[in-house]
Amino acid sequence: MWKKAVGAAMVAVTLAATPGSVTAAPAPDGGAAPAQNGAVDTADSGLSWFARHLGRQALPAGDGWAAEGTGTTGGTAATPEQVHVVSSRAELVAALGGDNATNRGNATPKIIYVNGAVDGFEGPDGSILDCADLADPEYSLAAYLAAYDPAVWGRVAPSGPLEAARVRSVTNQTRQTQINVGPNTTIVGLRGARLTGLTLMLDGAHNTIVRNLTFDDARDCFPAWSPTDGAAGNWNSQYDQISVRRSEHVWIDHNTFTDGDNPDSGQPVHLGRPYQVHDGSVDVTHTASLVTVSYNRFVGRDKVMLIGSSNTVGPDVGRLKVSLHHNLFDGVLQRLPRVRFGQVDVWNNHYRLAGDGFEYAIGVGVQSAVVAENNFFTLGAGVTADTLLHDWGGTAVTTRGNWVRAAGDRARPVDLVGAYNAAHEPDLAPDAGWTPTLRRGPVLPAPAVPAVVGALAGADRLLL
Q: Where is the secretion signal located (predicted)?
């Protein structure tokens, strides 16, 4: 019976996940109508029909929070001269407007295809820079460790010349590896496309689409030592792989996020704590809202998705509306997602969780309203159902239709709130107070999710 259900679900969701007809609607901020029915623009005539079709595709109606109101059309209104194929950092910056310092203000509709690997550490002459090239002359890690060792400095925040030199070094790296994206933009990877060592910064980048890319190793050369973060202090990094800030109508779809050949597990221990050089995969903060994150693959990462900037009640209230569906969280440790304030819809995702470093899946933060429905959790040894939720100051979460397969056991339904409350105090209430309505295609029964998500999530799963 379940095999028939899974087969039917595979067909239905494959159709739902395949690019539909090209949308002729203009971008919310205006612009010319896109090419119709695969018409060839001279700028992209070297691309396959499927690639051109994908570049002109808008978010389908009803597909999560990013479909609310005007929807999300990205660069579908781009004129032929605003269609670009890029294969280097310099070409990516040029396609986004020409000046990385001001590109975030470039609202001209544009479609950018990434061909091959683009490295954020690529210098002006095409050579690949390293951390030493970006360091301020007065900074060195060895001197920093010696100066701010808690045995010498105490457990207060670093200050003084060495910390100032670290901050200047961070400024140097931000100019180099943070790639600023403006509104009305579609960025699509051709087969095998990879963005490495960089952050796509979507700050005020309304109406933006990012699809079919592999992101790896958005490393921070100059992590900050935070001696009061936890009982023993922690290293904190600055750079996400995608950072969504002050933006509305953003669609992040069919991407793969990894640390490449530089995993956190391979980092040294400094000042008694792991030297953390990576931050999030997709963080949605600073009043951003109306975001759909679909069919992505998050592999072997620590921090994955933070929704909400801080616990401070302020401008984030009423914002941070995010949908997550048909994503694979594979061997990741926390923030899947962690939510503050937002109405966040988490449905039909597959969580494959294992390892000593696993902390939790869904973080229920201050004034958050998470609905987690029909997700499937595959748990390795040592990971139990009561650890799938974590209370970060929230009070309620809606969970229904979820299933779990614990190590050595068969798959079975799970009451996530009940499992959490049985092991933790205070209890979480079982009703987040809202019902999602923006869902495209069938909501799969949880047992069908692993097969569908495994087949369709991640980069290079779309026809190109």
A: 1-24
